[in-house]
Amino acid sequence: MKLKRLTYKLLLIVSAMTCAWAFSPGLANRQDQFRDGEVIGYRGAGKNDAIARLQRRINSGEIKLEHSDSNGYLASVLKQLNIPVSSQGLVFSKTSFQLHRISPNNPRSIFFNDEAYVGWVRGGDLLELAAVDPQFGGVFYMLEQHKTDKPRFVRNDECLQCHTSNATRNVPGFVVRSVYPDERGYPIAPLGSHITNHASPLIERWGGWYVTGKHGEARHAGNLLFSESSNPEKPEQLTGANLTSLAKKFTPTSYLSAHSDIVALMVLEHQTQMHNLITRLNYETKLALNNQKVMDEALQRNGDELSDSTRRRIERATEDLLRYMLFVGETRWQSPISGTTSFAKDFIATAQRDKQGRSLRDLDLQKKLFRYPCSYLIYSEAFDALPKPALDQIYKQLWLALTGQTKDKDVLDIAPEDRKAVLEILRQTKTNLPAYFQRDN
Length: 441
Fold this sequence. Notes:
3 domains; two-stranded antiparallel sheet; alpha+beta; 9% strand; globular
């Protein structure tokens, strides 16, 4: 009888572990399983994000979206979501589900702020939208462009086919991809592609994108068409640098802006993967806690404390997020970078500043992207919504990093004065910090 009970318990444990893997966003191509799973419950997303809130305001009659013959609801949606036109990035590679309309002569516009993204294609029937749900990560929508009394944002989970993959850390998320397009905009597969973020070398960035701005002698893959004989690893072949006008590239009729600001693109690259890492920590924590709960019940254990395996799983995801949010491995450059729009000014307009006037949104642009090495998305709803064990762990590791007590040598390489500045800024601007953040060490 004891052997039967033990066998039954072991079967329960195996079952629990199997369920955890089945619903785990750590496995590629598992969208359907975790979407329906009770642990993550992604199918319940779309109630607490910027687009869902906008839809409720439309339904109640509080606001009415304005329609334009030239770009449909685009300008009005951006206004209601508080997304600046200056954030526009122009991508002409055929890497969207509206690819038949996208070309070097008709690039796709991407606009963004901290919590939402909007895609528009000239002549397209739909606006493509995505928002950050604090609990679930990226949620994707469409909005038909024909004029109607009450426009309706419709969930488009088909986007998860590309937006839940290794490129998004295997959670519903966002990605900036650099490809090498031919004259029609199709990526040339043999030349490869890159998922870009703040650690990517400039030479790998913005293939298939238009880029406006100054950046000295550095080279990138933007503003160019390629052939199979091209070698994008050779800087001398990357001749699209330092453009301040795209007048010779395409006709911007109906576009809200004729620019694709390099500073906006760099912020976009940082932000997309930061969102993904926050979501990944959220998911990993929930899955680890559920796995422990099932095993504790099967073994009739007291589950008041985290098991070693649960703690390690949370710590691994925390470490990845911490290193990224502190810009470990960030690419540096030799000449100052400047954009061609008001994006830099618009971006810092919402900054939370300490008594010395410092903010985590302050841009550097001389040799790195931000002045202070800590992501502004620490203020986001998604960060604050992390499960308590994850939030406890990320704050603990952040405190150790900023006070020089971490064992991570790469984090210790951050200049002490920069770590000190970040700590002081957070003390005065970040709500709900643990009390120990007020100590000097």
